[in-house]
Every structure is written in structure tokens, then in C-alpha cells.
Amino acid sequence: MTIPSISQEICSRAQALLSEGIATDATGCLSARIGHHLVITPEGKKLSELTPDALSVVDLTTCTPVEGPKPDSRFPLHVALYKKRKKLSALLHADSLSILTSSRAGIEVPPLLDDMAQIVGVSAKVATTWPYRGTGPVISAMKGRNAVLLKDAGGLCGAGSFEDAHAVAQVLEKGCKAFIESTFLGGGVKINRFEALLMRTVYQLKYAKQDSKNR
Amino acid sequence: MELKEVRDIVYQAGLNLVKEGLVARTWGNISVRLDESRFVITPSGRTYETLKPEEIVVVNIEDLSHEGDIKPSSEKGMHAEVYKNRPEIQAVVHTHQLHASTVAAARKEVRGLSEAHAQCLGETVQCAAYALPGTKKLKLAAGSALNGGRKAALLANHGAVCIGETMEEAFLVAKTLEEACEAFIADSFAKRYGKSDLSLNEMHDHYLKALA
User: Is the pLDDT of residue A210 over 90?
Assistant: First the structure.
């Protein structure tokens, strides 16, 4: 991957997120790790107006912008996550209906569906102090998971590729929807923690690799 | 039907289900009966968009053995159970559709269906008992929830299984189930909060107000 190719992917992925309603035009933000840098959407730029030659580049080691326009103000959080999680290569903010509602509710979303347990993690925690207490509580809330809810601000989803981060966002939306709307039906029934962990482990070790292996 | 023909049906159904938002990426699985002893099914963990018809796997209904090197879906047992129990059924789709999954998360039976929905689905749609994906327990639970000539069942904490005498019928069942589950959620909201005809946005706003 090069900075131009990853920039192209950020722009095309942003359009896909917009068309699915996973991200909103004005508040969306995507970034990718490339070597010792991250490429991130710029401050104040709508996702629909992104162009590959006008993204921001930030030095991961020093956490300083090095190229392009001013980066999205959330870049220190992305830098901190890339530094902490070596396997993370793509991050995206999602604020579709159910994710946003859950972030506003401020309640940890349990695994009510098996794909939530497999792809997001055993729950989606809420970083309730975001953004006032810095990046630490967000990193802590996302530990062992591929997503975290940011209080009142939607979710942050991450994975080893944009395709997988996009899938995390889709499943998080579905999991949040199930959690919220099952309350109308009397409440959802949680998958127990042991089985949720088992499903996640099997998914990560085996099933997630099948698309390339099972040919 | 010939092998090529049934593989093409499964391949096209995959693309159609993705287009309708009933499955995505590698989730869910689709099969068609090939003959009395075999069916064809989507491979394990493959995205529908990159799948080729010739990669769709032939599986034996009785012993679940498969032909070729490509592994069939881990839910092959559930499909086989349907073909064993229901000789008239020619197509099975296992979806992870949104509204049906929400009802499945609450492990509720879908009741109070409209006349149009009931014509396609029956009077109610049962929710199969919870079981881990790919297990014998799940296939038996799904088979049981489809008893009584039903064409759809919810799978607790997992998704839905929809069946038909043709792929077109199974597809229609899946779409109708999604509509029926959406209506069931809205009706349940109305009964609980005394407010009807609200959009999903409004229901979510109400949920937040109720928490405050």
C-alpha cells in the first residue's frame, strides 16, 4: 500500500459508508495506518467532497501533521489507537441511527446476536468521558474489541482493513438496533459471556480467514 | 435439475439477497436441492460477490459429506435437516436480516401477522431454541421451529431460516418475514408505550426519553 492508494480507498470507502447511512457527511472520519504515518480525512471537509489528493498525513511517532490540510480534530485518538493496537490498520467513525442512539443512551451493548460477539466483541462499551478525559478511557473501553461507543458521538470501529472495519460498523449497527428495539418486545436475551468469547475466538482464528483460504 | 442449473440458482440468489440487504459479506448461506440425496450450498466464509457458480458445494443430505476441496457452509446440517424433514422443499436461505434478527435477539414468536403476511408465513413464526452456530442442537431446533408446514423460523440470537418449493418462494418468504418482523416491532412498541405510527427515529427518541 502507498499513500496515494490508501487515500483512494479512504475516498471510495467514505462514499460506501455514506450510501449505507453508516456515516454522515459532516461528521464522518476515516483513517488508515501506512508505515509510520496515518492518512486521515481533513477537518471541516464533508465525506462527499473528499478527494485522494487532499487528505491529511500525520506522523504516528510524533503525533504531528506532516502533509496536506489540517487533519480531523480526532486524529490524536486515532494515533493513540494505532500505537496501542499493532494489528489495527483502519479506523472509521459510524453514526447510523442505532449506533448514535446507543452512544446517547450511554449503556454498554451486550452480545444479543452471534455476529456481534464474533466481529465486534463480547460487548460494545461506552467511553463515557469522551472527549474530556483524553484518549486513555477510549482505548481502555475498546480493549479486546473492534469497536467502542463514544458518548453522544456514535461509534469508532477498527480492523486490519477498511473492508473489515466497515463490516464491524455494519454489525455494530445491527447489534445496537437489536439491543434498543428488543426492549420494545420485553428485552433481548444475552448470549452468555463464555459462549460469546468462544464464538469470537473461533471467528478470529478460523472463519475470518475462510474467504481467502476456502477456494 | 442439472448441477450447473442449481449452482446458478444459488449463485444468483446470493447476489439478489445481498442487493435486498437480507445477507451481507460472508454471512448467511443458501442452498438448493439437487436430487433426493444431495443439495448444493454456498461455501464456508466466502463473500457472495466474489463467489463463482462452480465453487458452490455439493453435499450429501444423509451423511453431510461434500464433493471437492471447497468446504461447504458450517450450517449445512440445518439445510440437510430441512431437506430430510420436508420433501417438498427445494430451496433454503439462512439470512441475517435486520428486523428478524432483532426479534430473534428477544427470542419471541412473531404473532399478529397481517393477512398478507400470514398467507406467506402462516399464522405465527416460531423462534428456534438457542444453540451455538453450526451445531446439531441448532439444526434440530430449526427443524422443530419449521414444523407444521411453516416456511420461516427465527433462530435465537442468530437470524432466520426461510424455505420454499422454489428459490423464488424462499426469497419471497425472507422478504415477507422482514416486513412482518418490522410490523411486529412497531406493534410491540405501540402496545408498550401507547404510541403508534412512529418512525424508527421517533421510536429511538422515545427510547432515550424513557431512559432519562
Answer: no
Do residues B118 and B184 make contact, with C-beta atoms less than 8 angstroms apart?
no
CATH number (domain holding residue B11): 3.40.225.10
B137-166 burial, b at 16+ Cβ within 10 Å, e below that, comes to: ebbbbbbebbeeebbbbbbbbbbbbbbbee
Cβ of B157 and A113 within 8 Å? Answer: yes
Mutate which of A97, A98, A114 to disrupt the B interface (most B C-beta within 10 Å)? A114
Using alpha carbons, select from B210, B211, B159, B150 the residue that is nearest to residue B30: B159
User: Hey, is B159 helix, strand or coil?
Assistant: strand
> Is residue B114, in this structure, part of any structural domain at all?
yes
In this prediction, residue A128 has a pLDDT band, given cuts at 50, 70 and 90, of: confident
Other beta carbons within 10 angstroms of residue A181's beta carbon come to 28
Q: What is the span of the domain harbouring residue A180? A: 3-213
Q: Which residue numbers in chain B have pLDDT < 70?
A: none
Assess if residue B196 is contained within a domain: no
Q: What is the pLDDT of residue A215?
A: 81
Residue B57 main-chain phi, psi, to 5 deg: -95, 140
CATH number at residue A188: 3.40.225.10
Residue B16, domain extent:
3-177
**Among all residues of chain A, which has the CA nearest to that of B199?**
A97
